[in-house]
Specification:
Layout (H helix, E strand, L loop, with lengths): L5 H20 L1 H15 L6 H4 L3 H11 L10 H20 L5 H13 L5 H24 L7 H14 L4 H16 L4 H13 L7 E3 H14 L1 H6 L10 H7 L3 H20 L3 H10 L10 E3 H26 L17 H7 L4 H13 L7 H13 L3 H13 L7 H13 L3 H13 L7 H12 L4 H13 L7 H13 L3 H13 L7 H12 L6 H5 L1
Antiparallel strand pairs: 1-2
Helix pairs in contact: 1-2, 1-5, 2-4, 2-5, 2-6, 4-5, 5-7, 6-7, 6-16, 9-10, 9-16, 10-16, 11-14, 11-15, 14-15, 18-19, 19-20, 20-21, 21-22, 22-23, 23-24, 24-25, 25-26, 26-27
């Protein structure tokens, strides 16, 4: 598939020249794009529609192909063409010594993970992996004669004592975290010492391990060790959610870890003894295409996780500066939906709130001629900048609006983003999608989690559905008292159906102590303002 003639290689190189110039000045995005390009090489035509929605595919398409709106019509031949560009981009980075030292091991790991691909792609991938590996070896040979780094020795002495009581999987994470917060972004010399440290703290440093095996072991350790449960949160950066990592870091080990970091507390609370099974399922059946069969040595895994921590922090800080207007976001177009491109130049200078207001005018026809396509574009632009109402509105449009092609996975994506920011309607809708399995794998744990988050904000439908679930024993233990409590909260917030049901519960003594006075009180609330006779009310 990747066999190219010399003339074809020259043509690709000519088109990539501007990208390589960009890569020299935008090192953070260039590293990100290298990982994206490797992930793109694993894509197959049968899942092309799924890939179009992923951040890695959009970044590769916009940056490597130079095309914009055409992504909506991308087909199998387009995929093969852009994969050739992706492979050549990585080759050029390596040939021109533009790969950052700390990224080399991770890129080598990711290339090696592709060797299970079909025979006609294996040759070129193998050749490139070997070249990257050769560069790594040559750099390591240059520093063999360096005297021992005293600062490292002091850190290692401390780390050996700090983590010797931890089981192996968390011990590796503890060492990586400690190394990163001590030394920050690392050059190849420091990475050599980290790889050595994995041996010194008693781990099987040279042994290969699959991502699935590592994460399974980590999940077992979390469940069995309360100290680890308390310390897991220190592995993440403030404000960085799993969605950001999954959309921006195309590395399965780090994506899996961040999913665990995002969900282990809620899963412990909801799943109890089924914690391990539930959390493993959450990772295996995520919508992000994580490859858990990738295998590497323990020491290479440590370096890979360290590198991903560094890249995550740099990308996140850059995004925050961009949103604050401190840097020009010249690559922002790679992070928005393809449908936005034609309108992007006209509106990218507006604030998220201005975009949302204008989108709402197009949506309702109030102040502008109704145009749902323009509304969709502007909601996207506001939502990509974190506007919570715009994110929720996109979920609504993709789920409900008949003039817009229904797309439950897109609805799920935007409901998720708004829900994570605390939007109670989005939390309820996300719970419903997990409940029904629309746009995602059905999960009672996730459904209950998001229903509860919405109910904690006094969301009436969420309160009622939790009441129903307790009343029927659906996914939650059957408990008529809890059923009554949820319905009473909804009733006290003014919901007429809940008021009527609470009156019934008081009247029959179902979930509450029988109380005719209270039954009458809630029944009268329910029918207040309605023209009904006393006999009709009693009936």
């Amino acid at each position: 598939m990747y066999d190219c003639s010399n003339s074809e290689i020259q043509e690709i190189d000519s088109k990539l020249e501007s990208v390589m110039a960009w890569a020299q000045t935008r090192t953070v995005e260039a590293e990100q794009l290298a990982l994206d390009a490797i992930r793109l090489l694993s894509c197959t035509a049968d899942r092309l529609e799924d890939y179009k929605e992923k951040g890695f595919f959009k970044r590769c398409w916009f940056k490597l192909s130079g095309k914009h709106g055409e992504m909506l019509r991308v087909n199998q031949s387009d995929l093969i063409e852009i994969q050739k560009y992706a492979l050549r981009y990585i080759q050029l980075l390596n040939e021109r010594d533009m790969l950052m030292a700390q990224s080399i091991i991770t890129i080598k790991n990711q290339l090696n993970s592709l060797l299970k691909e079909e025979e006609n792609t294996r040759r070129e991938i193998t050749r490139l992996a070997e070249k990257v590996g050769e560069r790594l070896n040559s750099i390591e040979e240059q520093i063999e004669a360096l005297k021992e780094w005293r600062e490292y020795s002091d850190w290692l002495d401390f780390e050996i004592h700090a983590c010797d009581h931890f089981p192996p999987h968390f011990r590796l994470l503890h060492a990586v975290k400690s190394f990163y917060f001590k030394f920050g972004d690392c050059d190849i010399q420091k990475l050599k010492y980290l790889r050595k440290a994995i041996k010194e703290i008693g781990l099987p440093w040279k042994d290969p391990i699959k991502i699935s095996s590592f994460m399974d072991g980590l999940i077992d350790e979390i469940y069995q060790n309360e100290q680890i449960q308390n310390e897991m949160g220190s592995l993440r950066f403030d404000g960085v959610k799993a969605d950001f990592v999954l959309d921006n870091i195309s590395v399965s080990s780090y994506a899996s870890l961040y999913l665990i970091l995002d969900y282990y507390k809620d899963t412990l609370k909801l799943a109890g003894e089924k914690f391990e099974e539930a959390l493993r399922s959450r990772i295996r059946y995520s919508n992000y295409g994580i490859d858990l069969e990738v295998s590497m040595s323990w020491r290479d895994l440590a370096v890979e996780l360290l590198y991903c921590m560094s890249l995550t922090k740099r990308l996140y800080e850059q995004q925050q500066r961009m949103l604050e207007g401190k840097i020009e976001n010249e690559s922002a177009v790679t992070h928005i939906e393809a449908v936005q491109i034609p309108y992007y130049q006209k509106s990218h200078q507006k604030s998220p709130e201005e975009l949302y207001v204008e989108a709402s005018q197009y949506y309702t026809g109030n102040g502008k001629s109704q145009d749902l396509n323009k509304a969709l574009i502007l909601y996207h632009q506001a939502a990509e900048q974190g506007h919570i109402k715009a994110q929720y509105k996109l979920g609504e449009m993709y789920y409900d609006i008949k003039e817009i092609d229904k797309h439950y996975e897109k609805a799920f994506k935007w409901y998720s983003k708004a829900a994570e920011q605390g939007h109670s309607d989005a939390q309820y809708k996300l719970g419903r999608m997990y409940h029904t399995g629309e746009g995602t794998k059905q999960s009672y744990l996730e459904a209950v989690k998001w229903y509860e988050k919405a109910a904690n904000q006094k969301h009436i439908p969420a309160l009622k559905i939790l009441g129903d679930m307790h009343g029927k024993g659906e996914w939650l233990e059957k408990d008529r008292k809890k059923m009554f409590e949820f319905y009473k909260q909804a009733a006290d917030l003014g919901d007429e159906i809940a008021q009527c049901f609470v009156a019934y519960c008081y009247f029959c003594g179902d979930g509450a102590e029988q109380n005719f006075t209270k039954a009458e009180e809630y029944l009268l609330k329910c029918v207040s303002g309605k023209k009904m006779t006393k006999e009709e009310i009693i009936k």
